Amino acid sequence: MANEKAPGLDGVIVAETRLSDVDGERGRLIIAGRDVEEIAGSISFEAAWSLLQDATAPDAARIEQLRARLGAARVRAHALLPSLGNALEADDGMDALRAALSHCVPSDDATTIESLIGATAVFAAAWSRTHRSLPIVAPDPARSHAADYLRLMHDAEPSPAAVAGMDAYLVAVIDHGMNASTFAARVVASTGSDLVSSIVAAIGALKGPLHGGAPGPVLDMLDAIGDAENAEPWLERELLAGRRIMGMGHRIYRVRDPRAAVLEAAVLRLEQAGGTHGTPRLALARAVEKAATGILRARHPQRPLAANVEFYTAILLDALGLPRAAFTPTFAASRVAGWCAHVLEQRAGGRLIRPASRYVGFVPQSAA
Ligand code: COA
Q1: Which of 111, 181, 218, 337 has its CA at 20 to 30 Å from residue 331's CA atom?
Q2: Is the pTM of this model over 0.85?
Q3: Are 201 and 112 spatial neighbours (Cβ–Cβ below 8 Å)?
């Protein structure tokens, strides 16, 4: 019998996990036993994926093995493209991913996970190219996942600085506690359903603007502000109109999201290497963040509202030349590894997730 009301399940612990921990008061994110600052910017996506699997630092041979397996998975996904029907013609990249990933056929867990990670990247890039009326590029299995993702998006050789920036992003967002999409994946897994179904459910949850959909609007905001001097009046007008500042605030963090700092550092390295596509935006982004933090502090002295991951996701992915419509699918290309790890964990020790509700509808008179 339920005895607690917890709308949104705030603070309710539904699982034990060794995959990641979010400390919102101190602004600390631990992924598989490492602080996010330790790994994002210094290890590859393959190495982070390996950590999610067994929490042991992988050696070069292990990373090479995972790289080859993901390369083969990308090639398999590319071969599936002709059978996806009109999935890649969707207007929204997440709709395309949801439809396209449904075509993956579950087999043994290890193969299915590799297939899903490879397919999310290949389908996201193929959708983005189709969306821009550009020909789809075939994967190169010899490359790292980050390098090939940039190649699949741009049909051009990425610079080492760009690959490092892509890896920093993919590692920073690979897992993040019991967020909505991870929870969705675990709920489906808890029923005994298959991995592909869990990941398709997670894609649906990530699509929502309260979860994975904010980085595009952050760039729209920077475009509208244009110059650091305009930041304060623009932000004040936005708040007066009753709108929220995108990329600011978080359900869990009461300080700056630690991923904002690692992504900001990744943008700085990219700019210093001269590797950014288009106009460097870091200086403007920092000025807008500073102005927004000050204005929000004055308005909500009791409720700290600082930059979240999406603020510098927007700046980094834009600097890497990705179109803003591809930002959330790119998020999925990383987080799919976290989702799969959670599914295995749920299966290993979890119970059927089946919360209760309080009935507030009509109760018929009981028959005499
Ligand atoms: N801009 C302006 N005000 C904000 C704000 C923002 N980005 N985020 C929160 N607030 C205000 C709310 O209006 C509310 O004010 P009120 O008490 O006067 O009504 C107060 O701060 C508390 O907000 P609340 O809705 O309880 O916070 P939450 O934990 O439910 O929301 C977010 C978290 C992320 C949904 C929210 O901060 C937000 O909408 N941010 C912008 C979108 C975004 O960046 N999303 C990506 C998240 S990673």
Answers
A1: 111
A2: yes
A3: no
